[in-house]
Records
---
Amino acid sequence: MEKLFNRSARIAQELQKKIAMIIQHSIKDPRINTIITVSEVQVSKDLSHARIFISFLKNDDQLNIKKILILLNKASGYIRKLLCQKMRLRIIPNIIFYYDDSFLKGNKISLILKDLVKNKKTSYFQNKIKDK
């Protein structure tokens, strides 16, 4: 039977918390003018690489998103250094930031489904009125 909480999942969860705190409090770049949320962290099995998925509070344009990703990826060495101080790991993983648009996609699907339900209800009631 597989373990419920394996080591890499626990480390990923802890990395998510620590990186979110570091981005919030330690990175003071004026070009990053939005609130960044760390939505998921995927760690390789040997814990040498980590994919950090981030999303933004505001819906920024694609150009601004790319700029922020470039800035964060350039600051990944500094973030690793701060992680070394905050976490007791033998290997601190290399960090690569990715944009996570799953919230926007989910919201879009939800709006489409609401619209379908609304249209179905109105067409149902229109058919009932015609039947009378």
---
Amino acid sequence: MTDEPGQAERALYLAVVRGGGRLCPEHLAPADRPAFAALVARGLLTTTPTGWTAASPRALGDRLGSELRSRATRLLQHAERLPDALAPLALAYDAVRRPHGPDGDAVHLDGNADIRQHISELVSECQEEVLAAQPGPRPVDGLRMALAQDLSLLRRGCSLRTLYQPAALVDHTVQRQVALRTRQGARVRLLAEPYERLLVFDRKAAVIPAAEDRSRATVLTDPAVVAHLVAHFERDWARATPADHHLDPPHPTTVRVGRLLARGLTQRAVATRLGLSERTVAAHISRLRDRHGARTLFHLGWRLRGERRD
């Protein structure tokens, strides 16, 4: 039985209430008997010398609420104890784990499932920081799947720095997913130029694609190689811009400016249409260029028109 009454139970309970709050079981249709039994089991119908009467749902809500809070407390306590309970197994795993491949400095992963599993292990074992360079569009489903693990990483004090390309944050669902992480301390920057996908864990292990379709990956642990990849990431990070304003909705005037640009109006025509100075419109256009990663006004108009078609 679920915590809440089902549709049939609700319908029968409402019928009883509308009928004065009393029910004679012999008047029940056979199809209503399962719902009747469920209402009795929940305590929403109580017996009287002459039949059954409706009981207050508030009492049920208070009782179930108390039970759910107790259950949640037990689950939280179990979650707190679980790492210690698994610690001996983790130590045994670490003692026999072979992080290196046959060539002594790499592990080759084949298939998305294998890649996700290995990355999940690296995130779980991370103690200090994760560096992530994520070019191209971000799949929302993947972000949702990784959310719990990313938040756990941040809550245990690790840092998370991620590079995106501006186009990745055009999707509002992606923006919300990224914002859930930045509110917990993750840092995000945008770089409007090509770069390669890269994940680095504690500056000890780096994951890079090993196939164009990203169906294969390689885990590198050679200190010199990892340090070289970290240096590339830090170089790109220094050139990138903070993504804070991308995670907030644009100003309504900025949105209106964008819509007029997408229709092909010039900066001067937009200013005239909205009754603004060209300088003010230029400021809104600058924000739009940052948000969309556009290099020129023509590039911005092209991207905005593409967004309207989507």
---
Amino acid sequence: MSDFKRMDHILPVGTLKIAALEGCRNLGKAVDSCLVASRKEASLHNSAAAAIPGYIADSYLLDCHCPRFGTGEGKGHINDSVRGADLYILVDVCNYSLTYTVCGFENHMSPDNHYQDLKRIISAATGKAKRISVVMPFLYEGRQHKRTKRESLDCSLALQELVDMGVSNIITFDAHDPRVQNAIPLNGFDSFMPTYQFLKALLDCAEDFIIDNDHLMIISPDEGAMSRAVYFSNILGVDMGMFYKRRDYSTIVNGKNPIVAHEFLGDSVKGKDVIVVDDMISSGDSMLDVAKQIKERGAKRVFVCTTFGLFTDGFAKFDEYYEKGYISKVVTTNLNYRDPELFTKPYYVEADMTKFLASIIESLNHDETLSKIESPTNKINDLLIKVRK
């Protein structure tokens, strides 16, 4: 509980309240349980904070809902008081499992619907909460972050809109391009990486996993994921390589230029375990193509680590590639909704982010620096020392 003990001497900004939208209820409950346990332990060391009304509670979750009318229109409703609270709103824009009715027809919730519900809850709390922070693990429209020709800049517009509504901090994970924060340069924007949780999950699930330059290599599946692979390889002290995508820029399929081929740059992977690290698996086609090429080059095992497992085209191709030995494990976090079928797959491993997210919220509530949380270098080094011993 070292992450929480650092705040023992600091008083909170305001009474902690968490509004977990319906699509993020399970993650919200898990984070809430972690915060309840940690604060009860911390109260033994911080009597001043423990004396503050609401600091120790059985739950910090608010009763909030976004009911809809028969036309599909909705409204945000908070049933608990938020006056003077330090409010954290959790939203998962990727949870397509939720449905609502429009004139008798069933519709699945889209990212646009979730984002609109987020604004409804902010609207219901604005003017009453002392501070509002939005925890949006998968950044809404994060892939539409730059303009080519005549295109909308959806992510930048969304960030500006949230700030205009009174949001002080926006917390996300592994933003597709963190430079999108330039749209709101005077407001809080933090993008956290799950590198430590990836490594811990791999060490728990993979037998004979040796971390040295002779047995392990980090691969970036494209040029956009280079920074993730560079950090991972440097902290582990192993080589890295990358693939770059040759695209057909003369056509557009599903909103993007199709990939013609993946070209590899790097040393030999023969006989080595390989970790392919990226921010998300959407359809998974490019990731699986990279894994196949790595295996054909003689790699021992291929471990895929991505922050968000979306699997928009299902699991059939992943099952096929696992049976053929192209992939050994697929590691994703629990920050977004995942189809229950995924948990039955022998190749799936979850990187639990619950305690990490709870420590972020606790740090912000105490106005404590996030630098130690943003850079997990020390925690990774400590883990490596234990492993090597």
